[in-house]
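name: query_chain
kind: protein
chains: 1
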Amino acid sequence: MQSESTNKSQKNNKRRILIVCFVAFFLLGIYFLIGKPMIAFVDDADGFQEYVKSRGIFGLLVFGFFVFLQTLSNCIPGLPFYLAAGAAFGGIKGAIICDIFATMAKHNCIPLGKEIWKRFFASAFSQK
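structure:
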């Protein structure tokens, strides 16, 4: 009887360790595969300003999408994007653009968390 509960406990511990490792590697992958190139893009202030000006509204939407992804991921630093917005669009306009796209991302986090991650963690951990 006791060995059964020990086996279940060991299986649950292994499952938890695997989930923590998966989440850690997932977040690291997002940072290195998406975050680093995005930061490098906005780090070059002159090149970024030229890109935004040459693309018009499309450049603004691409930048907004970057802020959206940065806010959703939460493992990509946001400071370079806010500084780049100030350099490219000016302080007030850049802050408004960042706030709009960050707010859109935060409003999408709630449904994603309720639907996707809740099921994911519920299958990994017992309800107790």
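note: The chain has a mean pLDDT of 80.
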